[in-house]
Amino acid sequence: MRAAGVIEFGGPEALQIVDVEPEPLGPGQVRLRVQAATVNPTDTYARSGVYAGRDPVKTPPWVPGMDVAGVVAEVGDGVDHVAVGDLAMGVVVPFGPYGGYREDKVLPGDSVVRAPKGATAVEAATLPMNGLTARFSLDLMGLSAGQVLAVTGAAGSYGGYVVQLAKADGLTVIADASEADEQLVRDLGADLVVRRGDDVADKIRQHFPDGVDGLADGSVQDELVLPAVKDGGAVATVRGYRGDGRRDLRVFPTLVRKVAEDRAALDRLRQQVEDGAVTLRVATTFPAEEAAEAHRLLERGGVRGRIVLTF
What we know:
It is a single chain. Helix content is about 25%, strand content about 30%. The chain contains eight helices and 15 strands. The strands form three sheets. Strands 3, 4, 5, 6, 7, 14 and 15 form a seven-stranded mixed beta sheet that branches. Strand 14, helix 8 (about 290-300) and strand 15 form a beta-alpha-beta unit. The mean pLDDT is about 95.
């Protein structure tokens, strides 16, 4: 069956249509006929070989992709929350040829839920990985209603979901944005918006001189933005950053694979989309055969919403 993957790691041009073997279906698993697979920054790292050392599969092809949506084609014993014919979405922990950029994907049943009512497969595919990562970040920080959260990269998919989920949790949100993105970030629900840049910590402190209670660092500013957080505050990071060790901040690297089978969290996200608390944002689509161009567009930067491959 068809997949978009690489035979040799490299730039976007390394992506091509490859033939992969079907995955067997076991108890507790779900088979999706994939209609849409979202393109995320982590996919570009997988394509270039950054993760090759930890991949248990050492022979090609390698297929990226961390979230998918499509029609349920088969369910294993013990699965009763989705049925054949349902439009569903799922989060993928990719390795070897088993990433999400393939037209048929078997997933643990607890990594799959029904797509939000009224959402297309393309729209639904944008939620699982980024939505679960945002939810996990907030859960790790453990802030209470009324506390203040700063969000960098708020116009991005992870940052945007953090803003919306934080507001649903009753938090006050101060977020960064470029001039072009300011209205978008306000529309997502941020209470205060400051201009993005290397001095964003100073700008946040202008509004909260004692520092914020928590920080979700979606734009990977790392040590540049830590001064925005009060002593003892919480910081959720991506890309594995663990802080600079200079203050007693509580730093939580957010690794979505740890919650990839948290079906309750994924289904809660589905419900929040249906309730209007969470917005699904699609930037553009490409057929799977044009995965290389999708990666080129993502790596040029400035994409708002997710790029989605279609099968």
